[in-house]
Amino acid sequence: MAPILALENISKRFGAVVVADGIDLSLNEGEALGIIGPNGAGKTTLFGMATGTVTPDAGRVLFDGNDITRLAPEGRCRLGLARSFQIPQPFSGMTVFENVVVAAAFGNNEREAAVYDRCAKLLERCGLAEKANKRAGGLTLLDRKRLELARALATKPRVLLLDEVAGGLTEHECATLIALIKDVRAEGVTIVWIEHVVHALLATVDRLAVLHGGRFIASGDPHKVIRSAEVAEIYMGIDADA
Amino acid sequence: MSEQGRNRVEHATRSSRIGVGIIGIVLLVLVLAPFWGDRQMLRLLAELSTFVALASLWNLLAGYAGLVSVGQQAFVGLGGYLLFAMVILGGVHPIAAIFIAGPIAAAVSIPVAALTFRLRGAYFAIGTWVVAEVFRLLASQVSVLGGGSGISLPAAAVIAMAPTRQAREFEIYWLALALTVLVLAAIVTLLRSRHGLALTAIRDNELAAQSNGIGVTRVKLIVYVLTAFGTAMIGALIFLMKLRISPDTAFSVNDWTAFVIFITVIGGIGRIEGPIIGTIIFFLMRQTLSDLGSLYLLIMGAVAIVVMLWAPKGLWGLIADRYGWQALPLQRHLVFDDARRAGDT
């Protein structure tokens, strides 16, 4: 079976800064992958290239065996590739409910009236029901992050790319979030999760990859990777050879 | 928890019910204007209504689709010239010509878009202006329509519209009012549709819109063509009212773009109510201050700067954000089946 999402030999540089240096990444359907790495390692750019908002200098992106390297972001979304943004990107002038309706109607190519109920349920699931008719621009950071997730889910994704959704959450909020993501995963959605809150990742993913200087320097069992010498070196400055 | 099909979505809110009521009353008063207003009042109201339409169209283009064009005078002038060409060269009835000018301009706007859509942001703005200048220069080359010095509408064509001067004035006034209502109704219908949902999302966040499956460029193109359609019709009407056209008046960046941007920005860009509020303010200022000569333009500039600094979303934006008002029922308001409050605004 072809991987649901594959990046082949992807390279990207912004001027002199190399953010992707021949990256290969392959995901099987139903898998949950965590990505960690220092700031500036190229994590968010990787999501940008997967979803089409950033054009790679070289390499290919494949979704379910089809080359989507030249497909526009909206096309990738409709195929089932959804993302949340690290800095939430709400439609600030629209209500929370309308935000989710947009994603549900266009991300899944459905009639507007056909998605209302699904959206109402999704808002309850993401803890936003009480704020359904509030303007999204007036939400707190936590609620904005919930809305990012709700909108990504509204598109009925097959692959969900999460960019630091747990950052800044309290323990309790984080536990709720982990439960929700595990739930989504149980429905068969493939997950890639960029996160600095490592314990959230360890509780959720079955593979962990470390991105540093535009390449994966380690990948495998989350608990082994997190204790590896490579991770110690880049995060703590401890020499791996010592 | 909710069962299938039990949650309801309403468009109207209390403020929009009041808003629609007020709009209805104002409209009725305006329709009856020939019976209470004098000739000058009718002219003023007709002109005001054309500016409401032009500003609403520009608002759709710049405020919603993010296409900040400073070249919409290209379509105002094109509409005007199309009307004169059809009436003078083809013997078409002036009112019919208005409605033919719309689709022709829409067709012309497609190759124009193919050219200008390659440009982004400020470059797009300048590009549209350049196109308008090209149109102006082309118009001045058409000698049968008066070339650079312009031409008047033949008296026979004007008299054919209605026998007496008064009847003509009533007819033109009602036509202006009807066209403006038509343009506004079309915009409201568009915004309430699926495309409107996409358009409002694009207004708020283009990146998120395309990441949520919206074909941003396609929606923008549709809006550009529709706006050209409406702008040309209003342009044809404006020059039917003026009875004379010349390249400089038809393609005036000052009259058809600078004033229109002023109106939209002070009223509230990206909101359907903004251009209406803005036009009223603009005309109040013009009627009271225009005797001051160039000082009047300075005051207008100062007002624009003050509004942009203290109310970047315009006067309507300031009020609407504060009180959650909408004068027209555009919002999709979720009502849960279990009578729960959902953060009603």
Folded structure, characterized:
The complex is a heterodimer of chains A (242) and B (345). Chain A has nine helices and ten strands. Chain A has 242 residues and is α/β, with parallel strands linked by helices. Chain A folds into two domains: 1-80 and 157-242, 3-Layer(aba) Sandwich (Rossmann fold); 90-155, no CATH class. The N and C termini of chain A lie far apart (42 Å). The mean pLDDT of chain A is 90. Chain B is mainly alpha-helical and 345 residues long. Chain B has helices spanning 14-31, 33-36, 39-64, 73-90, 94-116, 121-141, 155-161, 165-192, 194-204, 206-211, 216-242, 247-250, 253-267, 274-289, 294-310, 314-323, and strands spanning 8-10, 151-152, 244-245, 333-335. In chain B, the strands form two sheets. Chain B has a two-stranded antiparallel ribbon with strand order 1-4. In chain B, strands 2-3 form a two-stranded antiparallel ribbon. In chain B, helix 4 packs across helix 5 (94-116). The mean pLDDT of chain B is 90. The A-B interface holds A 51, 53, 72-74, 77-78, 82-83, 85, 89-98, 101-103, 105-109, 111-113, 116-117, 119-121, 123-124, 129-135, 151, 154-155 and B 1-2, 4-7, 9, 194, 197-198, 200-201, 203-205, 207-216, 270, 321, 324, 331-334, 336, 340-345.
Topology:
The complex is a heterodimer of chains A (242) and B (345).
Chain A: E1 5-14, E2 17-27, E3 32-36, H1 43-51, E4 58-63, E5 66-67, H2 73-79, E6 81-83, H3 96-107, H4 116-125, H5 141-154, E7 159-163, H6 171-186, E8 190-194, H7 198-204, E9 207-212, E10 215-220, H8 222-226, H9 229-236
Parallel strand pairs in A: 3-8, 3-9, 6-7, 7-8
Antiparallel strand pairs in A: 1-2, 1-4, 4-5, 9-10
Helix pairs in contact in A: 3-4, 3-5, 4-5
Chain B: E1 8-10, H1 14-31, H2 33-36, H3 39-64, H4 73-90, H5 94-116, H6 121-141, E2 151-152, H7 155-161, H8 165-192, H9 194-204, H10 206-211, H11 216-242, E3 244-245, H12 247-250, H13 253-267, H14 274-289, H15 294-310, H16 314-323, E4 333-335
Antiparallel strand pairs in B: 1-4, 2-3
